[in-house]
């Protein structure tokens, strides 16, 4: 339509394209969730309903954006990873981040009543999330990022489990519990749980200890025994063969997107630090859809 | 808590601070709202419920973020402006944009049933919004940005009103109406509306013709008659006196934020291109809270 | 010419356009000049030859880039300012900065023998400079930037003058002089200079006390007496009337560039903190060439 | 020293850190060298003195910045590559680019008289260079970048050699030569050279056909015959084992820098597109200094 003399202001918009051939991680975080968890009486140290709601919202994001390879969530945060070959929105940073944040928030609000049927959202201070994009130049770094989040999950959960057990079951004040835990290492906390409360931390639920990982499900690959696996591993860690430097054509992108939509999106609570997770699911790093389980018959 | 050997991945996060002493406009846009408006049967050319819902969500954003000076909305887009002196989130771009996008989306979903009581949201493809931040170095440019959006509103609304009248009342096909309107100017469209359908475009509702502007309400200033106003205007267009180059201290910020929270957030449908709107509400450009209406007595 | 299959790597170049309608300051700094000044026996506290060489190189930069409005130098650093309306190299940051750094370095090396005829450059560790661009959204901030550099010049020169007088004339060791100056304020240093060495700091050369400012010379404007100058000052501080938001057309740019080339580039050692300097040379802030001195007759 | 009230302007400087673990290529280009080559009568199609001067300046840059792994030059441009593990200047983009541009320019001017003894530089319009940094996330992309430049060298040199032979030896006008070459492919140009002028393009000097590559010399590695080399190649293409994600400690950096300074900087005119060049010099991609030739005895 007709232009106006004011249209020059468009020139102030600055490009924000993320570097090609680089993993893009979008991490979102709940805003003020400490206060929010008090307001809606989230169970300590972990509220299963709240985590299931986070996972449900994240799974919807994965379904709406087939370009996403994997997501990992813990507490009120979630990280979503786009493949280096991803061309969605021309890799514009703000567009990628806001689309994820908005889609996630929408489902979080929409599905709230499913997970908190007796606790309606109050009309002010609705839950909200902020987000940011971070680039990782290769898959080793992406895996280290994911490991970082899962180690954090472990460290925080062991602390929180011990702290809240001391407070809720041990009758200690928050301050006393905090004081006693200061400077302790993992084995100390395990011992407190076991000796004082008969709790074996290993028996805690996996979702609390490992967080949640979401990905598309294809037929799992066999893991080669270590002796032979040298080569296999190397291949896996290699960057995918570049198509014009890893930039697939538009029609290739559409085809891959379509294939990805067909795969089931699954939520898992497993170790993503060791190689096994990635070796059995090579499609996550390669960005190439695997065989659908149905096809295996 | 304890660090892990993976923590180095944090160093890949890159700073994204917006330039100090510069207006920040965050514009959000509905994603795929063409399809969405079909799905939920939005009335053509304007669906009052949908616009009221946009305005309600935007008003909540303004209430939650007192640093915002003004917002302007049309169709499925909304622009929010932070003052040059704003220090919220250290002016980190992604944080500012995602907070607005997330808060807006949350309220849009949450309030949907209020405005569309008979049309529940469907569980896939929820409404979502993307967003971006644009910087404008002075208030003249901010006003030109706002004018750009309001001129766009006018141009689009006149076109849409004429087009849909020709189709819905005139029984024309979409293609025929489009064909006839090609190359027409405003007066042509006004004439089609008036001569064929007896519609005076000037009598259309202001919300459709002008869009919606949201701001905090203080006591309006008198507009000086033009003859004397030379100086007044100049003052108004000047950038605010710099406090350390326009960067207020933390306690000044808190004080201003508190004052802003007290003001009523109002939704208006008025001309924001001419000077009058801005002259009568100098607090928008100055960033300094005006007198509350109650105080005037 | 023909493209190769490797050409896709061009897509990794990221845009780096500086915000329109914003002052651009490119500051360059000598690399390792402390060591260099020892190597070539620069006179302490100020080496007139070295400063004259800096100024000569900066003046050549001003002549080669008519888009520059003003430059200010002190010690081994120089700041060059482009007007908000500048469109040179589409305002690409790297291009603007490297062009200035390269041109400056070239003249510094080329003219070295003129200022140090008995001290030829040695073939390793040639003098070199780094640089960066900083944006300032309005002329108040540009002036504050310039004031910052000139205040720094004053503070450093008073310190250095006192320190080297104590060492060179007073026979103190570097450590003792440093120790005695620790915690002193300006008046203390003035007193040391005057009482012990009979030196009145005010009589030191202006180039050392004020640094060097370079600009194009037009006919100076009369400064209105303060009583009346209120309005004049305001006008001066206003941003220039925007041409499409301050973005002149290509032919306007060429015309202005041509006019600027005609003006003489002068090197001055005067106060640039107070208003007078700017009021008498309004073309610096306005970006509009003034009247050439010749025209005044 | 004492701060001034103007110091707040420092906050307008924005960080420009390049992504960690990513190759950084700084490419510099002669400004207006077409005109410059006329002015100083550069020989067509290649002026050996001008190329030798470019190479000499680039070699000095390599010596002054041991963090550089490789450089490649053709015509009036030069590309310098920093390793992904490089931490020089905290990877600040402007600092890296301007240091290279300034050092290069300095040596170019300083050494001019060595290569053009009879052709002194004129005091206006000195040669100057602009520059930019581009990031490449892995070594495959770096090699594709280098291949891109070398293919460009070949394409341009074949064209220029043919064109200037037609003009200078064949007596054709520029326009006629240009016209005839329009649409020709490599074999056509080879044929023109051979059939009309008896010139076998393959016998042209390597520096013209291949450009110039500069690197540090260590003991060359044997190239494994292709049959066995599968694994070797893979290893070579792998990213180096990350030390904290490829970020070496400060003392590791210093140690590596020291080792690199010991290596001889050599200028070569060889194929850098095929694997051999890189396989025999694995230190370029690995960033780990090889064995010094002397050590091999």
Automatic annotation (TrEMBL), chains A, B, C, D:
It catalyses: a 5'-end ribonucleotide-tRNA(His) + GTP + ATP + H2O = a 5'-end phospho-guanosine-ribonucleotide-tRNA(His) + AMP + 2 diphosphate + H(+). It holds the Pfam family Thg1C. PANTHER family: TRNA(HIS) GUANYLYLTRANSFERASE-RELATED (PTHR12729). Keywords: GTP-binding, Magnesium, Metal-binding, Nucleotide-binding, Nucleotidyltransferase, Transferase, tRNA processing. Residues 225-260 are annotated as: Disordered. The lineage of its organism: Eukaryota, Fungi, Dikarya, Ascomycota, Pezizomycotina. Binds 2 magnesium ions per subunit. Its cofactor is Mg(2+). Its EC number is 2.7.7.79. One of its GO terms (biological process) is tRNA modification. The keyword Iron does not apply. This is tRNA(His) guanylyltransferase. The keyword Oxidoreductase does not apply. Mg(2+) 2 binds at residues 29, 76. GTP binds at residues 29-34, 75-76.
């Amino acid at each position: 339509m007709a232009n106006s003399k004011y249209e020059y202001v468009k020139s102030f918009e600055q490009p924000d394209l993320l570097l090609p051939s680089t993993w893009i991680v979008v991490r979102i975080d709940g805003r003020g969730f400490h206060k929010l968890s008090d307001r809606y009486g989230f169970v300590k140290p972990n509220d299963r309903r709240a985590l299931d709601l986070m996972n449900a919202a994240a799974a919807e994001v994965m379904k709406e954006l087939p370009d996403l390879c994997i997501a990992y969530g813990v507490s009120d945060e979630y990280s979503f990873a786009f493949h280096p070959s991803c061309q969605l929105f021309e890799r514009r940073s703000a567009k990628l981040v806001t689309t994820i944040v908005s889609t996630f928030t929408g489902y979080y609000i929409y599905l709230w009543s499913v997970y908190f049927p007796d606790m309606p959202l109050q009309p002010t201070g609705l839950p909200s999330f902020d987000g940011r994009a971070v680039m990782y130049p290769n898959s080793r770094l992406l895996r280290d990022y994911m490991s970082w989040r899962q180690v954090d999950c472990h460290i925080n959960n062991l602390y929180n489990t011990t702290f809240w057990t001391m407070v809720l079951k041990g009758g200690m004040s928050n301050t006393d519990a905090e004081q006693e835990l200061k400077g302790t290492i993992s084995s100390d906390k395990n011992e407190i749980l076991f000796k004082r409360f008969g709790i074996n931390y290993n028996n805690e639920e996996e979702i609390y200890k490992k967080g949640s990982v979401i990905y598309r499900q294809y037929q799992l690959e066999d893991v080669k025994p270590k002796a032979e696996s040298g080569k296999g591993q190397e291949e896996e860690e290699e960057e995918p063969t570049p198509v014009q430097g890893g930039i697939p054509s538009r029609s290739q992108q559409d085809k891959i997107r379509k294939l990805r939509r067909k795969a089931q999106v699954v939520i898992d609570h497993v170790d993503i630090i060791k190689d096994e997770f990635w070796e059995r699911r090579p499609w996550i790093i390669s960005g190439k859809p695997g065989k659908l389980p149905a096809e295996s018959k």
